[in-house]
Design a protein that fits this description.
Layout lengths: L1 H21 L5 H46 L10 H7 E8 L2 E6 L4 E5 L1
Antiparallel strand pairs: 1-2, 2-3
Length: 116
């Protein structure tokens, strides 16, 4: 949240600079210098924000993979029959590749293809 606030603050400063330039209180060279500096700061913060967001997504993916591993490791017996509950919890979607092949998308971003 702090990063979002800082970005908003920097954008507001850029807006103020634009108004000052438009009204003639700020010359072109100083305006370009200040806006370039603000833009660089905004870009740096946006990159930092993307890293934090990506990290959260990666954490969620790892948790899902750990859950998948736990599910199979804690089973006492080999799964012989179809278990609808397990299937619904593990498979996010099925993509039809062609009439002879399906692609299963599992939790945690795992995928595998199956010939039919």
């Amino acid at each position: 949240m702090d990063i979002h606030k800082e970005i908003a603050k920097l954008r507001e400063q850029a807006h103020v600079l634009a108004r000052l330039k438009t009204k003639g209180f700020l010359d072109e060279a100083k305006y370009l210098e200040q806006t370039t500096e603000l833009t660089a700061k905004i870009n740096k913060l946006q990159t930092e924000l993307k890293k934090l967001t990506r990290s959260d997504d990666e954490d969620e993916m790892l948790e899902q993979i750990e859950m998948l591993i736990d599910f199979f490791e804690k089973r006492e017996n080999i799964m012989i029959d179809f278990d609808e509950s397990a299937f619904e919890n593990i498979v996010e979607k099925i993509v039809v590749i062609d009439q002879h092949e399906l692609e299963f998308h599992l939790i945690g971003g795992l995928k595998f293809k199956e010939n039919i």
